[in-house]
Specification:
With about 425 residues, this protein is mainly beta. Helices cover about 15% and strands about 55% of the residues.
């Protein structure tokens, strides 16, 4: 009632001051800032319990090295984001500075993850030039159709990734029928010298592209990558909400001439060219209590079989024994070459499952999140478990505890990992 009388009094006052005329109310335009700055700083102390009997531990050690069963680490990360936007021009940068201490040694690195300019001559057309992350694909952890992106971290799939230097355009149109949105994104990615050296073979001008359509309330992408630095490939993905709380997604890539380095029985490393199909099938489900469940199945057509992986592990063991007994390191050198050629990449085998559960405001505590993830190698039944706890005591402060538990039998992917348990604490401050 007090608010009503107050409003009436203000109206009478305005009417009197205006001489009985209807007052003119002007809403000032919202002025957006041209320059934006942000980012975060984090500290990540960690304790790692090592498995000295694992073959991957022996690959990275020598019989003369002191046996270390526990490793204490301290890592720090500073991410700086900056942007400028004015009319048809904008620019974005993202710089990451990392430092760490482990095994009595310091390390540091600074990388520009993104630095590109965008021109928007018309509302339908955008032109980009510079270092950029494309973020293709619909899978949560694996993205076989993300031809121009780096692999995600299993401990934090949402972590920012370093991009590549590209020239790209994006042309978008909207329609009124079943086809609601259509966009075309051609991309040029040169590889020469130090420019995009991590993308693949040098001295190639690679062409890629994506066609996006929103059709019948379904997101659909079709991608391609011309041959050059990497073998040519094409793929697609799609995502659709079956109900308001259920989303399904799929992603597929076909590589007609995939090249895989294979260890032979006679301890030789040879290349095998064959067609490969990689795909992801997944679902996301949100319950009435706001619990989110994610499940993805990943198949890698060019992945290693259990027999091929076991041969790799046996080579490491034989090389370690040879070095220990006779001082010969030839087999270990070959094993390290095989590691770099493909056996050491993340999830190198053929069939995997990923599951994740998160519960915000858990136990009735505001801003407390409980979660757990699991990566299961369906070929050898080994797995990695990642339970976590997050809490935000303030709007710009985030605390997280994460454990990574590797489990599996002998000669399995996760059973032969160098670290069997990793416990990490993270304190992140956003600014």
């Amino acid at each position: 009632m007090t608010r009503v009388f107050g409003a009436i009094g203000i109206a009478l006052l305005v009417s009197t001051s205006a001489g009985g005329q209807e007052p003119t109310v002007e809403i000032p335009p919202i002025e957006r800032k041209a320059l934006s700055l942000g980012g975060y700083f984090e500290l990540r102390p960690a304790i790692v319990w090592l498995d000295t009997s694992a073959v991957l531990f022996k690959l990275q050690s020598s019989p003369d090295d002191p046996v270390e069963t526990r490793n204490t680490q301290l890592n720090a990360r500073l991410q700086l984001d900056a942007g400028y936007s004015r009319s048809w021009f904008s620019a974005q940068t993202r710089t990451v500075v990392e430092g760490g201490y482990a095994s009595s040694a310091w390390s540091r690195d600074a990388s520009v993850y993104e630095a590109y300019v965008s021109l928007k001559p018309t509302p339908a057309l955008t032109l980009d030039a510079g270092k950029k992350t494309l973020k293709w694909g619909k899978g949560y952890l694996w993205n076989p159709a993300a031809f121009l992106d780096r692999a995600k971290s299993p401990e934090d799939p949402a972590l920012a990734l370093e991009g590549f230097v590209v020239l790209s355009a994006d042309y978008i149109r909207t329609f009124g029928g079943p086809l609601q949105v259509l966009s075309v994104t051609p991309v040029v990615i040169p590889v020469s010298g130090d420019l995009n050296g991590g993308f693949g073979e040098r001295d190639h001008l690679n062409l890629a592209g994506k066609l996006y359509a929103l059709m019948w309330d379904t997101d659909i992408d079709v991608m391609y990558l011309s041959g050059g630095s990497r073998p040519a490939r094409f793929g697609f993905d799609l995502s659709r909400n079956l109900w308001s709380n259920v989303e399904v997604h799929a992603e597929l890539a076909r590589v007609p001439h995939a090249v895989t380095m294979i260890l032979g029985e006679n301890a030789t490393l040879t290349s095998l060219e064959q067609p490969a199909t990689n795909f992801v099938l997944g679902i996301r489900y949100l319950t009435a209590t706001n619990t989110t469940f994610i499940a993805d199945y990943f198949h890698s057509g060019a992945g290693y079989t259990p027999a091929e992986t076991e041969r790799y592990f046996d080579l490491i063991q034989r090389g370690y024994d040879s070095l220990n007994l006779a001082g010969h390191d030839r087999l270990l050198v070959l094993a390290r070459r095989a590691t770099e050629a493909g056996y050491g990449r993340m999830n190198p085998m053929r069939n995997y499952a990923y599951a994740r559960m998160t519960q915000p405001d858990a136990l009735g505590v505001l801003y407390l999140l409980l979660g757990a993830s699991a990566i299961v190698n369906l070929d050898d039944r080994s797995h990695s478990l990642l339970p976590e706890v997050q809490y935000k005591p303030a709007e710009n402060v985030e605390l997280r505890a994460l454990a990574n538990l590797q489990r599996g039998g002998a000669r399995t992917e996760f059973g032969e990992k160098r670290a069997k348990v990793r416990l990490e604490m993270r304190a992140r401050y956003y600014f």
